[in-house]
């Protein structure tokens, strides 16, 4: 099982130097991956967090300044040699599939095949408005977007005739390192998204909140993948932990948080579930604290 962390790409205090240092140190201490995420803007009014029906609250200040997910990974690719470069998640619908497919393929080539793109459908109404994309594009439109990108990554000549996206017969390159394109992860928070990922032969990137939900989601995903004719073992699962690894044990803690010893016990549980990647997104600790505590975990 591979371990990683989110890069500090948000907030007014970050910088290219901080981002590069974090990635280089992550690689030096033995972490397997570094990750970015996407946010286009911070509305000045309360929003439904997570999408329609979610709790209404003021958007986090961090949303106001977020480095571009893919551009950051292109920069980090040049500063590292080994770590996997992941997104969790990139909102694919905000970009034309030809443009996004070429950007992904380019970074995949520049990094020597290290890119692991996690993509999602998006949830913030204001971002859809700013992108000129209707929220109704989610669902079937997302599936068609993925199909169009996969067509771009396939052999030339490329042609795609969809309801929403059309690609005239063309030569399009570069192609990704892996034939057919990089492995995709789908961000999933509801059963329909989990089923979609399984049916389309993508992996999953999930945020862990409690053990029962994670176990049930992984089991449902693997059943759906097998029913769709895919090998469940070939579809990776990544777990994002929104929390901290602490220097000392914690009495009341969320899964995969707490001291290195407590986290190591939880990682054994995730390994038994055949999870492929675990990475931490910690908005509280400093980067140096995160790297130190992750180094202690690796040593266990």
UniProtKB/TrEMBL annotation:
Family matches, as SUPFAM superfamilies: Bacterial luciferase-like
Superkingdom of source: Bacteria
InterPro entries in UniProt: Lucif-like_OxRdtase_Rv2161c, Luciferase-like_dom, Luciferase-like_sf, SsuD_RutA_monooxygenase
One Pfam family matching this protein: Bac_luciferase
Chain ranges of the Luciferase-like domain: 16-244
Keywords: Flavoprotein, FMN, Monooxygenase, Oxidoreductase
NCBIfam families tied to this protein: F420_Rv2161c
Entries under PANTHER family matching the protein: ALKANESULFONATE MONOOXYGENASE, ALKANESULFONATE MONOOXYGENASE-RELATED
Protein name: TIGR03619 family F420-dependent LLM class oxidoreductase
Species the sequence originates in: Actinomadura fulvescens
